[in-house]
């Protein structure tokens, strides 16, 4: 199903239009001010550069001051009501902007920029915390986040273009841009009035006005869930990378690519369109579910695209002052344009799953404050990016070298994040392999509890079974695997990173078996999900063998819910035992074959048995081996 179907539904469309209008006005008002300062007021290039940096600082400052207040308000109030109030604030700010444009008052326009920063800081927490309440987490959340990310990127671009073009249009530029800003704000308020009401997440919560203490408490929430903390760190790094890239694109386009301002606009447009394509592509690539395996693919992708951008154009341009049409026709520049598009595309693939990860794992009564804490960190990383770029350029690096340095930094930072969250990389490997080799369909996975201890049991058909399950179930999983495979050289490191639990029959190694039971019990006690294959070995004939009593031993120690799974269509594939070793080493005869993973209804671990679980898995698999 396409995410665009959400645009036909009241639960999403009014909110969608409201947030897009806010992103448009934030950037249109800022760009209009810069054009007014540089064009109509006749100030020099040094003054324009100063106001450009000053405008960015004024816009970022409110994120430090008001984000945590906004997070608390978003939990104490009906989200629809809060958005309407924020839109009324935006209307007032745009009317003040119109007055500032008419008076050519830079101090008044600086106040407006600060107010628009307040508007963005207030809107951020409710913008992302409302999505998991109105969208289905299993089928719609990724698509909804993709639409929001795509339109935000495009609204920023269109706002900059429209605000600058309206102000530069001539004698009536002031009136034209004023009318545009006020009209968009009024439209946003009208859309907000159509957002359906929702109950407050924490209506009785106390509002803490001490910004430092409230910020510390919000940041402390991140440490309660490692998956949320990892996602927040990943998002903050994205804003560092994107902050440097987008801030330097105008000067890079004119100075290093030899273009005019039209090439700078084209470069920003390519990046924004790329972000939109990547963000919207997340739903299809992830099969409509939250798939953090796309995060490493995005990180690797925009590193490679950034490196290629440097090596494609490392030196000074042969020509300068080229219009965008002429520039595109110059040899080698289509390659540069493709790199700009790809940097944005992989950025979109990277950022959407991280926001969805936070929304899925955060508790309803904490989500808005977690988003607020994330916004504080984002602002901090954007400031750090500006400082890093300033120092690098002052030390003699050119913009291409700056892009190269950040691309290489991304390798190190991404590696660190993936060491903190190995499931990102493991799921990426699983996603690539499974979707390369098979055409997978899933059913019933919405029955997987989002949290709490869970034991998953599945039939065992091929060596790919763990990867297929890992790439399909959105919860982090710990697999119980044969100790002889676990100790395989080289792969042993991968299994340890994936926190697999080695096991052996009692007749082979009773100590390993006892340790496995202890580790499984400890994982379940900690609220983790553990997956086992109770047959004890790969199928030799495509049929499901009798389940071993070990599963009953696990449940006797800790009677947790049990979810039966069934894999279909894998018998006869190159990774099954249908053929001997030499035949399996030939090219697969069933490349890209159809397979399926089906989940049943969770069973009570206190009353179920190995025989009952075997019957449940048999019923789920049916006759399709």
Q: In total, how many domains does the architecture comprise? A: 3
Structural class: alpha/beta
Give the low-pLDDT segments: 581-588
Mean pLDDT metric:
85
Number of helices: 23
CATH topology of the largest domain: Growth Hormone, Chain: A
The general outline is globular
The CATH class of the largest domain, by name, is Mainly Alpha
Kindly state the percentage of residues in helix: 55-70%
Q: What string gives the helices and strands in order?
A: HHHHHHHHHHHHHHHHEEHEHHEHEHEHEH
Radius of gyration: 27 Å
Q: How is the quaternary structure best described?
A: single chain
Number of strands: 7
In percent terms, what proportion of residues is strand? 5-15%
SSE arrangement:
Elements: H1 13-40, H2 45-76, H3 79-103, H4 106-129, H5 131-134, H6 141-167, H7 173-192, H8 211-222, H9 226-256, H10 261-286, H11 294-312, H12 324-329, H13 333-361, H14 367-394, H15 399-420, H16 422-437, E1 438-443, E2 454-458, H17 465-470, E3 477-482, H18 483-486, H19 491-497, E4 501-503, H20 510-525, E5 529-532, H21 550-557, E6 562-568, H22 581-584, E7 593-599, H23 610-621
Parallel strand pairs: 1-7, 2-5, 2-6, 3-4, 3-5
Antiparallel strand pairs: 6-7
Helix pairs in contact: 1-2, 1-3, 1-4, 1-6, 1-7, 2-4, 2-8, 2-14, 3-4, 3-7, 4-14, 6-7, 6-10, 6-13, 8-14, 9-10, 9-13, 9-14, 9-15, 10-13, 11-13, 11-15, 11-16, 15-16
Description:
By secondary structure, the protein is α/β, with parallel strands linked by helices. The protein folds into three domains: 1-207, Up-down Bundle (Growth Hormone, Chain: A), CATH 1.20.1250; 225-420, MFS general substrate transporter like domains (Growth Hormone, Chain: A); 432-621, Glycerol-3-phosphate (1)-acyltransferase, CATH 3.40.1130.10. The protein has 23 helices and seven strands. The protein has a seven-stranded mixed sheet. Helix 1 (13-40) runs antiparallel to helix 7, helix 8 packs across helix 14 (367-394) and helix 9 (226-256) runs antiparallel to helix 15. The longest helix has 32 residues, at 45-76. The protein is globular.
């Amino acid at each position: 199903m396409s995410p665009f179907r959400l645009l036909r539904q009241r639960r999403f469309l009014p909110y969608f239009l409201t947030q897009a209008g806010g992103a448009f006005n934030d950037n249109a008002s800022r760009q209009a001010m810069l054009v007014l300062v540089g064009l109509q007021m006749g100030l020099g290039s040094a003054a324009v550069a100063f106001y450009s940096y000053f405008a960015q600082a004024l816009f970022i400052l409110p994120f430090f001051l008001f984000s945590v207040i906004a997070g608390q308000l978003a939990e104490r109030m009906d989200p629809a009501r809060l958005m309407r109030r924020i839109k009324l604030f935006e209307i007032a700010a745009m009317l003040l902007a119109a007055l500032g444009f008419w008076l050519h008052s830079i101090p008044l326009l600086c106040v407006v920029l600060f107010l628009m920063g307040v508007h963005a800081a207030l809107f951020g927490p409710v913008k992302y915390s409302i999505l998991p309440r109105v969208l289905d987490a299993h089928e719609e959340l990724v698509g909804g986040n993709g639409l929001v990310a795509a339109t935000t990127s495009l609204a920023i671009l269109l706002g900059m273009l429209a605000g600058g073009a309206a102000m530069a249009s001539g004698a009536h530029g002031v009136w034209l841009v004023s009318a545009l800003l006020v009209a968009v704000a009024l439209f946003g308020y009208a859309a907000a009035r159509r957002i359906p009401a929702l109950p407050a997440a924490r209506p009785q919560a106390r509002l803490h006005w001490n910004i430092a203490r409230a910020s510390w408490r919000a940041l402390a929430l991140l440490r309660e869930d490692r998956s949320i903390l990892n996602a927040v760190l990943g998002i903050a790094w994205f804003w560092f990378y994107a902050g440097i890239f987008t801030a330097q694109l105008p000067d890079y386009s004119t100075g290093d690519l030899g273009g005019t301002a039209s090439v700078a606009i084209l470069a920003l447009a390519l990046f924004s369109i790329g972000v939109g394509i990547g963000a919207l592509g997340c739903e299809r690539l992830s099969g409509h579910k939250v798939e953090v395996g796309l995060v490493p693919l995005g990180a690797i992708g925009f590193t490679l695209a950034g490196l290629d951008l440097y090596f494609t154009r490392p030196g000074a341009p042969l020509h300068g002052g080229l219009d965008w049409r002429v520039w595109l026709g110059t040899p080698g520049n289509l390659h540069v344009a493709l790199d700009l598009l790809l940097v944005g595309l992989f950025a979109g693939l990277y950022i959407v799953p991280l926001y969805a990860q936070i929304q899925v794992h955060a508790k309803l009564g904490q989500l808005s404050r977690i988003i607020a804490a994330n916004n504080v960190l984002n602002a901090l990383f954007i400031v750090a990016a500006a400082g890093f770029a300033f120092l690098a350029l002052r030390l003699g690096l050119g913009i291409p070298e700056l892009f190269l340095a950040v691309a290489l930094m991304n390798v190190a930072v991404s590696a660190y994040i993936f060491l903190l969250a190995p499931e990102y990389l493991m799921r990426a490997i699983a996603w690539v392999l499974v979707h390369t080799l098979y055409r997978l369909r899933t059913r019933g996975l919405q029955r997987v509890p989002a949290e709490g201890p869970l034991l998953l049991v599945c039939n065992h058909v091929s060596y790919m079974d763990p990867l297929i399950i890992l790439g399909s179930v959105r919860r982090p999983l710990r697999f119980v695997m044969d100790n002889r495979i676990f100790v395989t050289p080289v792969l042993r490191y991968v299994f340890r990173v994936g926190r697999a639990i080695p096991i052996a029959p009692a007749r082979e190694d009773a100590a390993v078996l006892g340790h496995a039971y202890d580790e499984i019990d400890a994982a379940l006690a900690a609220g983790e999900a553990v997956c086992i294959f109770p047959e004890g070995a790969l199928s030799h004939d495509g049929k499901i063998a009798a389940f071993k009593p070990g599963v009953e031993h696990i449940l006797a120690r800790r009677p947790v819910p049990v979810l039966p799974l069934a894999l279909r269509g894998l018998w006869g594939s190159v990774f099954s035992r249908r053929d001997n070793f030499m035949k399996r080493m030939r090219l697969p005869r069933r490349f890209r074959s159809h397979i399926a993973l089906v989940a049943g209804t969770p069973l009570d671990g206190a009353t179920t048995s190995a025989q009952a679980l075997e019957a449940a898995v048999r019923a789920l698999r049916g006759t399709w081996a």
